What does this fold into?
Amino acid sequence: MRALAAIASLAALAACVSPAQITTTQLLAADAATSLAVGERVTQIVSSREGGEGQDAIVSLSLRHADGRALSFQEGNHTPNDLIATGAGGALAQIMGLPGEETTRLFHATAADSQNAFFCGPDGPAAIGTYEGADGVLQIVGLRQAIAFETRADGVTEALPYSPDQVCARLRFRRG
It folds into this structure.
């Protein structure tokens, strides 16, 4: 019993030391296709907390539909492959159809709950990519599977071609 109390105390102390920063934003459909796919309004909840010493922050993103369904993701910023995919002009920017050397953000689904999916079919996306343009439009692309990588004979790691059939949603929002 004392061990359980000690663990609970340490968890509470850790929460006090590095509380999560939570931002809630209303996203309004920026085009008719997004409105038809997910409705006029989606709530975006971003939670960020410090990682351990020398580690990146842990960023969680939740997209909540007006009817209460929600999809949860965690930012892919911890592995070399994630960094390659999201780098300037990287694989995710190419999948999203972004011109030039745009930098994107990749989020991996954290829970497969077919009851909560509201885009990309009943199971939801395996991952999403996000990009906010200079015009303030937030683009979200749903991916049916993760981006795959291979290491060439010369030791360079690169993303394998991603089939357009594996993109299950292209959404555009304005913050509101």
Remarks:
- The beta strands are 21-29, 41-49, 58-65, 70-75, 105-109, 127-132, 137-143, 149-151, 157-159, 167-175.
